Amino acid sequence: MASMQSDSIKVLYRGWVEAMGANPEMTLDEMRTLFDHWGDVTGEPGGVDYIEVDAGGVPAMWAIPKDCNEDRVVICTHGGGYVVGSMYSHRKVFGHLAKAIGCRALILNYRCAPEYPHPAPVEDAVLSYRWLLDDGMKPEHICTAGDSAGGGLCTTVLLAIRDAGLPMPAAAMPMSPWYDMELSGGSLITNAAKDELVQEGILASMAEMFLGSASPQDPLANPLYNDLAGLPPVYIQVGGDETLLDDAVRFLDMAKEAGVEAKLEVFPEMQHVFHFLAGAAPEGDDAIAKFAEWVRPKLGL
Amino acid sequence: MASMQSDSIKVLYRGWVEAMGANPEMTLDEMRTLFDHWGDVTGEPGGVDYIEVDAGGVPAMWAIPKDCNEDRVVICTHGGGYVVGSMYSHRKVFGHLAKAIGCRALILNYRCAPEYPHPAPVEDAVLSYRWLLDDGMKPEHICTAGDSAGGGLCTTVLLAIRDAGLPMPAAAMPMSPWYDMELSGGSLITNAAKDELVQEGILASMAEMFLGSASPQDPLANPLYNDLAGLPPVYIQVGGDETLLDDAVRFLDMAKEAGVEAKLEVFPEMQHVFHFLAGAAPEGDDAIAKFAEWVRPKLGL
């Protein structure tokens, strides 16, 4: 049974849905201000330093846990439909991940839509990866992680890295990833009554802004239309009550078929990006701990 | 008239009062978790790095705005009745202050009551000041700031510094300071209906924990019983709707009588530590900007 503490993310999401419902003409700025509070439900990791940096032209924030192994990096891409969210809203959740792994996190403030539609986000993520390599970081000591749209991005960046002929990072950890720009997953309907935030309307609106003039079948915008061969090991975590559940399920099948070491874990009764509960509810801490346990040996830790 | 955005701090406080009312047996841990969310109403300053440090035995966090003058420091003491709050809950509000001044902030995680009653907080603050001096910082390039109980502490630390024969910092900026451990201010009654958070009950409970075996007239716990001569310039900001308004008014009179350059500004219709609205409502930004404008020349900036 879901912990009492995990209710806080439901309360947060209900508040957003209510605010959006009460203000159908909500501006982009207002929506961004709303989603800036995503991290309010996350406990403070503590013992982590945060240093803003220009990562090869991409604004970013280092999250550096005390006594971590600074030769290992997780590149983190925040969620928010490629439209909202930032390195600030996701500071704590990615701080928890870095602390659990014992490495640095590079939290990207990649360019967002509608000002910068696809492929700006994935281009920025590749730029930051090149910047790490140019700085002497070894690809086998780098992994990626991200939530929601950032879960898509932490996956598509690997496909772009592959296509660019760059060496591949060691692993990827998508959290509640959004892959399907056609919104064709069955769980969009079957989990609609349980998911407190992610409904077809908001997804369609964000997909439109993100895609711009690109096709919803563009293989770097929607990896369900890409060949997944050559991807490093992928460990996806998703909540059982999510409308995006089927994005993860379909990606897993495709990845396995392409010979990728892929793993999916569904956390019962959990909401979209329940990882935000880290430091505040056991389910969040459990998920982060499982990611860390899985990825540490892959990074040589 | 108060801005619409400034309502968020009223909503926060009402939520706390409701939660405490619904759970009269609330544990200390639960109360601390509640107050950990103080900073949720604050906008992210941005362009500020946060680095945890051992400040002479006192856990602390540097807030370092990009391109600031690192030779100038504001020592920041958080509020929360000497019982709750932390360097994390106040990260953003003190980040705003440091950014506006163009200096570093040293945000203290001083020992709190009831585990560590008076004089632990003021002793920790003095330790951190000695640590800065030992590190080569000039006293005339250091100022103090703090809110609520931390507003008391950013004042009493100066009295302790004076008593220890140490050179005096350049200035102090108490925000909605709590000085009076006897709870004898008239505004406790006259503003009771307007103040959404600070009522006699919570103050009495916190004073008891903070004082431990000390007297409510202890001159380092309650500066209204101290001689204020020798203090550097003090600029107090307080909300017009605060029950603690009279703490500031009485301190101002005493300071002026003792020959201190003292200034008080009352912000109409504002709640306790409305400075938390920085980055989110004009009143918060205005208050921070006024502090910065006042203190910059005193720090030689």
Task: Write down the domain tally of chain A.
Answer: 1
Enumerate the spans of chain A where pLDDT stays under 50 for 5 or more consecutive residues.
none
SS content category of chain A: alpha/beta
Percentage beta strand of chain A: 15-25%
Helix count from the secondary structure assignment of chain A = 9
| Cross-sheet strand order for the largest sheet of chain A | 1-2-4-3-5-6-7-8
List the secondary-structure elements of chain A in sequence, H or E: HHEEEHEHEHEHHEHEH
Summarize the main sheet of chain A.
Answer: 8 strands, mixed
What is the β-strand count of chain A? 8
3D architecture notes:
- Two copies of one chain form a homodimer.
- With 301 residues, chain A is α/β, with parallel strands linked by helices.
- Chain A has one domain: Alpha/Beta hydrolase fold, catalytic domain (Rossmann fold, 3-Layer(aba) Sandwich).
- The first copy, chain A, contains nine helices and eight strands.
- Chain A has helices at 7-22, 28-35, 91-101, 120-134, 149-163, 187-190, 200-211, 245-257, 282-298; strands at residues 48-55, 58-65, 69-77, 103-108, 142-147, 171-175, 234-239, 262-267.
- Chain A has an eight-stranded mixed sheet with strand order 1-2-4-3-5-6-7-8, sandwiched between helices.
- In chain A, strand 1 (48-55) and strand 2 form a beta hairpin.
- In chain A, helix 3 crosses helix 9 (282-298) and helix 4 packs across helix 5 (149-163).
- Chain A is globular, with a radius of gyration of 17 Å.
- The mean pLDDT of chain A is 98.
- Chain A binds chain B through residues 36-37, 40, 43-44, 46-52, 66, 86, 88, and chain B through 36-37, 40, 43-44, 46-52, 66, 86, 88.
